[in-house]
UniProtKB/TrEMBL annotation:
Its cofactor is Mg(2+). This is YegS/Rv2252/BmrU family lipid kinase. The lineage of its organism: Bacteria, Bacillati, Bacillota, Clostridia, Christensenellales. GO terms for biological process: phospholipid biosynthetic process. Residues 1-129 form the DAGKc domain. One of its GO terms (molecular function) is ATP binding. PROSITE patterns: DAGK (PS50146).
């Protein structure tokens, strides 16, 4: 089998760059050929993964959730799906947490060398893809507007500071969600669709799965022109969602589960895909079951 190792040299604190020889030497224990590609710009990982899917049996990559999303954009439409091995090196690593893939390089490589292959669901959003989260509204821009220098300096706290700086107003927008025969029209400050268990480092969707063919949606309602107290109430609802989880009873949160949705929002509402800036406006969302060939820890239950 032949393999390419693609890595983001600035992800996290850049530690993976110092371990390239070790990573390649370990990968050669499993793969006959191991090539290496270092990304240089945003979108570079997607292009590299797309080309690699045509030539390699395996793509091993390192980076954060955003890097995972870039790889997904490159391989999701491949005719033959290569196996994917993942060495988490980002700031939060929600996907790795959900899949129990260690952040430690040595232990992550142990999973790649001795783990097992499972087919995971991913999400198609119009003509783009997401692995574990699609979101819009309050705080969702923080993951892609936070400067890399801040993330290196103070880690995940940088996201919180960026979110507070840019999202304290809690802008309200109209949203219509269609799920088969069910339709909800309301005003909202936050819409969250989940395919994994962790979001922003929080174990918010404890019974979520990458292999059940469905998504969980949480929508935080708000009035069109909220008073100060109603804004505070929305803050509390959002905090409860993240602190106590998707199943926690909160009257200001609407919940859905399903495999296909249509969501209508104004054109200026920007969607976040796995921590990366996505598209804006209306979206059609569907689960693509058992699409991604992923190496995970052997014997992993509740994927």
């Amino acid at each position: 089998m032949n393999c390419i190792f693609i890595y983001n040299p600035v992800s996290g604190k850049g530690r993976i760059r110092k371990k390239i020889k070790y990573v390649v030497d370990k990968l050669r224990e499993k793969y006959e050929i191991v090539d290496v590609y270092e990304t240089r710009a945003c979108g570079d990982m997607t292009a590299a993964a797309r080309e690699a899917a045509k030539k390699y049996d395996a793509i091993v990559f390192s980076g954060g959730d955003g890097s995972f999303n870039e790889v997904l954009q490159g391989v999701a439409s491949a005719e033959i799906m290569p196996e994917l091995g993942y060495i988490p090196s980002g700031t939060v690593n929600d996907i790795a947490h959900s899949l129990h893939i260690p952040k430690n390089i040595r232990r992550a490589l142990k999973v790649i060398l001795g783990g097992e292959n499972v087919m995971l669901d991913c999400v198609k959003v119009n003509e783009r893809y997401a692995m574990y989260v699609v979101a819009a509204g309050a705080f969702t821009s923080a993951t892609y507007t936070t400067p890399q220098s801040q993330k290196k300096l103070i880690g995940r706290m940088a996201y919180g500071l960026e979110g507070i700086k840019k999202n304290m107003r809690f802008d309200v927008f109209p949203v219509e969600v269609r799920n088969g025969n069910e339709t909800v029209n309301t005003q909202s400050v936050f819409v969250l669709l989940m395919n994994g268990r962790y979001v922003a480092g929080m174990h918010i969707n404890k019974k979520g799965s990458f292999a059940d063919g469905k998504l969980e949606i949480a929508l935080v309602k708000q009035t069109k022109n909220p008073t100060f107290l109603k804004r505070i109430r929305a803050y509390i609802a959002l905090a409860r969602l993240f602190l106590f989880g998707y199943k926690f009873k909160e009257k200001q949160i609407v919940r859905f589960e399903g495999s296909e949705f249509e969501i209508f929002v104004p054109e200026n509402v920007i969607w976040n895909f796995d921590g990366e800036k996505g598209i804006s406006g209306n979206v059609k969302i569907q689960v693509l079951p058992k699409k991604i060939n992923m190496i995970v820890p052997k014997g992993l239950k509740n994927i």
